[in-house]
Amino acid sequence: MAALGWLTPRRRSATARSVLAGEASAEAARKSTQHLPAPESAGEPDFPVHGDDRAAAFFDLDNTVMQGAALFHFGRGLYKRKFFETRDLARFAWQQAWFRLAGIEDPEHMQDARDSALSIVKGHRVSELKSIGEEIYDEYMAERIWPGTRALAQAHLDAGQKVWLVTAAPVEIAQVIARRLGLTGALGTVAESVDGVYTGKLVGEPLHGPAKAEAVHALAAAEALDLTRCAAYSDSHNDIPMLSLVGHPYAINPDSKLRRHARQLDWRLRDYRTGRKAAKVGIPAAAGVGAVAGGTAAAIALHRRRGQSL
Length: 310
What we know:
- By secondary structure, the chain is an alpha/beta fold.
- It contains 12 helices and 8 strands.
- The strands form 2 sheets. A 6-stranded parallel beta sheet has the order 3-2-1-6-7-8, sandwiched between helices. A two-stranded antiparallel ribbon has the order 4-5.
- Mean pLDDT is 76; it is low at 1-12, 35-45 and 275-310.
């Protein structure tokens, strides 16, 4: 929300609006971290490689770092603050229930949620939404962070690497979450603003699917990163373009399509939704520490049943 075959060549799957969304998100992400100090490094695990300043990690947010969808939690917080009416909250609640049951993104639900969010914030100041985002994180999001994925991100930070969230959620909300988790920054959907006030329009399109890959590519170019040495983490087959960009792709809490794709390409797999172990294909050491905590926190019946069926 500030101004708020996939294995074929990169540009083929991306539209002009995807490119615009990706570049706008990368620029917003870099501006938000220009004055941050470099992270301290501690330890030297086999992976990530300690001291490799041309490597970084990119984490999807919804159902990868956090249980559920950030946009829906944000909607709950706005409803509490009387930004919209009860009937709108009911729609948000239904979309979130569907997301948690299915564990995948429904394009119609996500588009409806984005349209609703844009109409709700139109005319509000960017600074107001940033402040509210801090409160909403504490109210609805903090307790939904997967400890296992958090441990993976920390491993990259401890190795001295930058770690970025990459999400379709509004960039201001994504930046709040990244900062609270101690990450470098966030790539998110950029909503247009004029003189610090939201216009109700997007810059490009939502940061989803090919647009995420464009954002990562743009940020990597600006930061002089070597994508073959970078890692990316996601739960969704929609993020195969982003995962395919890097040399170290990880399927975290994967949907069935991504699980199949990951197994075919020998990508690393880890599932924190249940106590069961996912395929052990080159799992980094830090994942083992977070797996028990992540599995315990997430072992709800709906996710267990779905996990056994995959």
